[in-house]
Amino acid sequence: MDRDVLTVAGVRDRLGTALFRRVAGPDGPANRARIHHTPGPRWFGPERPIRVVHGDASMFIGGLRALLLQSLHPLAMAAVAAHSGYRGDPWGRLQRTSTFLAVTTFGTADDARTAVERVRAIHERVTGTTTEGEYYRAADPHLLEWVHITETDSFLRAHERFGARTLSAADYDAYVADTAKVATALGVPDPPRTRAELDSRVAAYRPELRATPESKAAARFLLIHPPLPIVARPAYALLAANAVTSLPEWARTLLGLPHLPGLEGVAIPLTGHALTRAIRWSMRPPD
């Protein structure tokens, strides 16, 4: 019996370590210790909804959904394609993003401000022109807002569907308000602060959105040719299916993503619940 327990614990430890290494990178353990154990005031107290949402395994699905949605703004996608290195170093980009989210959500206020200042400095250097001749700059408040609202919307919806502990409507409003603090620090002048405002803001961007060769290439990379070992691809395919089916219909249409009649209502969400439970189990702290 003890041997079986040790075997299960060993599997959990190996799986959790591998996932954490992928998401957080080689500096993950040191960053985690600094973020969670450095004394000092935080932007968000332990009772805030942003900690519940950003600390949940549903973020794996929400993050992929956000990337697909973000790709539909041609200026934002052009900046990502030209400057982010998502093809050459996709894991590095994921690790930098996950570290930023962890620092601003759970870290000290000083660390959060430093992280925001670092990102703002990077944004100031990112400028260019799309293949159609449109000028973009990453520090444009309008583009910053698009990235912010797609992330907030995706993390909220993924948590609502797959979170270990779903929140009340008032708590989800409070989550949107929490994320507005980070968005304001990054340079978004008036981010939404309730779910209704968030929905309205996403809808307001619809006339600007379209599929481009860059957005379709990004979708193929994320959904069909992810940089993963073969053994990990079946689980990733299920994660991707849940991200795709959670997209609004208009976004799926623009990206040309197929429907799976008979599977989307029950079967695919069941795999999402199973995956997030498995991630939660593998990455929880040792007993």
TrEMBL record:
Keyword presence, Oxidoreductase: yes
Keywords: Oxidoreductase
Annotated ER-bound oxygenase mpaB/mpaB'/Rubber oxygenase catalytic domain residues: 53-281
Pfam families, per the entry: MPAB_Lcp_cat
EC code: 1.-.-.-
Annotated InterPro entries: MPAB/Lcp_cat_dom
Top EC group: oxidoreductase
Protein name: Oxygenase MpaB family protein
MF (Gene Ontology): oxidoreductase activity
Organism: Streptomyces ossamyceticus
